[in-house]
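Quick one:
INPUT:
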């Protein structure tokens, strides 16, 4: 599959998706959102891919925001459609992907960039990373899930402050607030992502997919997360991975999951 705005590389069980618009600091436009959707869908459908790393090209930015030139003259209806379509195609899509997605935040992650990082299952940042939701400085609010995911990750009060001030936080602050799991140098960012991916791939991809569903359900209105956990837990018992995992444990050997 050919792309203009992103790069996709696969090696063994690991896929790396790089947003590649360095002259625009990897800003998200509609074409890039569509390409990311298509790439994530294809990788999720590829049984050989167990983990996806998402990053931005260069050392300055993960994604510096949305491409404002595309929507500066939108109407109320246009703005609503923009947010709805973007969330459907990319942000909600990534959050609910059955393949784990780790964001490697290398530099600025602002506006839609931070919203994309937050849609990933967890985040690692380089020590030069800067994160924020500056939308209120433009007379608008975060429209790709930022007002929902940021409070879930760092708490309502701090999220309110960051949105209202349109301020940025550095990587260490992001780690302190629980927005990112680790902070490392630029040079260590990809190796750490690969190291964590190597730990994930040892486990059942079927069980991981069900865990993602159960964890996400606890953050959705009208959904009982405990009930979802019970259902997903029970479903595991009908999988080949469960049979292999429990058999390997009883036989005191490492499991060889068929991922079925």
């Amino acid at each position: 599959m050919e792309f203009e705005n992103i790069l996709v590389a696969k090696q063994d069980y690991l896929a790396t998706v790089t947003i590649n618009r360095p002259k625009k600091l990897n800003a998200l436009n509609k074409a890039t959102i569509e390409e990311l959707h298509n790439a994530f869908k294809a990788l999720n459908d590829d049984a050989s891919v167990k983990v996806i790393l998402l990053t931005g090209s260069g050392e300055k930015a993960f994604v510096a925001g949305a491409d404002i030139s595309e929507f500066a003259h939108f109407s109320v209806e246009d703005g609503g459609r923009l947010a709805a379509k973007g969330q459907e195609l990319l942000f909600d899509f990534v959050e609910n992907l059955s393949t784990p997605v780790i964001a490697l935040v290398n530099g600025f992650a602002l506006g839609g960039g931070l919203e994309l990082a937050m849609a990933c299952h967890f985040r690692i940042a380089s020590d030069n990373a800067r994160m924020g939701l500056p939308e209120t400085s433009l007379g608008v609010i975060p429209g790709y899930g930022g007002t929902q995911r940021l409070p879930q990750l760092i708490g309502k009060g701090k999220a309110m402050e960051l949105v209202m001030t349109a301020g940025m936080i550095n990587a260490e602050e992001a780690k302190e607030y629980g927005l990112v799991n680790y902070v490392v140098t630029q040079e260590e960012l990809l190796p750490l992502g690969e190291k964590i991916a190597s730990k994930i791939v040892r486990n059942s991809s079927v069980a991981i997919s069900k865990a993602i569903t159960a964890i996400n359900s606890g953050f959705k209105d009208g959904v009982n997360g405990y009930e979802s956990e019970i259902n997903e837990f029970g479903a595991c018992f009908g999988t080949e991975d469960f049979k292999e995992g429990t058999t390997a444990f009883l036989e005191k050997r490492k499991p060889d999951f068929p991922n079925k």
